[in-house]
Amino acid sequence: MALDHDEKPSQPLAKFESMLKTDDIYFFDAEDFEDIIHFYLNHGKIALAKKAIKIGLQQHPDSIELKLLNVEVLVFENKLEIAERLLDDLEFLDASNEEIYIQRANIYSKKDNHEAAVSLLNRALDLTDDGFDIHSLLGMEYLFMDNYELAKDNFIKCVDFDPEDYSALYNVIYCFEFLEEYDGAINYLNDYLERNPYCDVAWHQLGKMYFYKKMYPEALAAFDFAIISDDTFIGAYFEKGKVLEKLGRYNEAIENYETTIEMEDPTSHAYLRIGKCHEKLKNDDLAKYYYYHTVHEDPLLDKGWLAITDFYYRKKDFTKASYYINKALNIDGENALYWKKCAKINTALKKFDEADYAFKQSVDLGNYELDTWLYWSDVLIWNKDVHSAIEILLQGQEFYPESAEIQYKMAGFYLMVNESVKGKQRLIKGLKLDFEKKHLFEQEFPQFSDSEWVKNIISNIKKASR
């Protein structure tokens, strides 16, 4: 049986390491070699594990367990063909040894044949009464196969076997999250906490589930219990701060973020949250102070630069906002929302060519929000490129065929280039889609809205809709 990660086979280990230093030859039981090898493997000392395997097999050439440990190392080193040949020999000697099928499953998993790996692991399960490790492996294989339901079932079995297997517990909740079964996760964690009421990890995960469900008082209580269970749990203080922000209790949120800073080295994320809290409290100087601390702590945190950008954008200091959004884009130039923000800033600065380019980048990167198409078309109008503005709205119409806003704008744009037939068609379509929004056309295109023919169209559509 494998040793726990921190367990030391002190006497055999010391004797073995002494042998390595002196070149003396000592004899060990096969079980001693197994313990020594497991210790080295658990601590990532592969070279020493290989030495122990080599010497162990010299002293116990018929030990199947030592041969299986040799296979485990070969699989780890991706020497899969050699490992498979050794497993063939071992299966001939002991076809009922579940470890043989586990190692074969590991080989198939490395070859991305997860279905075969699952089949072998299930065969291994049939051969043992202690399937804890096998269920963990099955859970991982099902994750590789995107079968989150079966993965969850296997990880739950791991937690049932060992309630302190927090890795399995995290995986259970991950599966619930991926399946968007937040209520299921909440029920599972509450049941778990009935049996393990002082588990800080479970309280922390429960708080996160309540947070996703926007059940902020319940989330706050869960994080409080996590802190009661472990008052050094930094993650619980941080998540509690986020909940307090949602509840508008910004001073208390700041206290929790500051606690995380006191407990360990300051983090850029804590500074960022503190800055946002101060901005909500109208403490502008403190907000700036913490935003600048954010990017000083981590110059590559694009969200820090974006926070400074948004701060100056709200203050209508668009020159500074432009400087900082470019900092964010230098870090993450593939972020569509950053490009959209850049476009809006350049629009405010009347840099319409730059705004046009930024909107194009945003759309190319997958931002297809309705207001993106509307703002972009406005930029092109201000740049006196009406035909391009029409082309942009035609693209936007593919995503929003029922948008009255797009139809009203296109009506006005067609009329601006004297394509009156198309303009009338678009106006009629907009009125039929949403008559109440006709003020959008009237306010943006007063030069056309006061004409008799427009008034007649509006009157006729109004009568027809009664």
TrEMBL record:
TPR repeats: 98-131, 132-165, 234-267
Superkingdom: Bacteria
Pfam families with a match to the protein in the record: TPR_16, TPR_8
Alphabetized UniProt keyword annotations: TPR repeat
PANTHER family: CELL DIVISION CYCLE 16,23,27, CELL DIVISION CYCLE PROTEIN 27 HOMOLOG
Protein name as annotated: Tetratricopeptide repeat protein
Species for this entry: Cerina litoralis
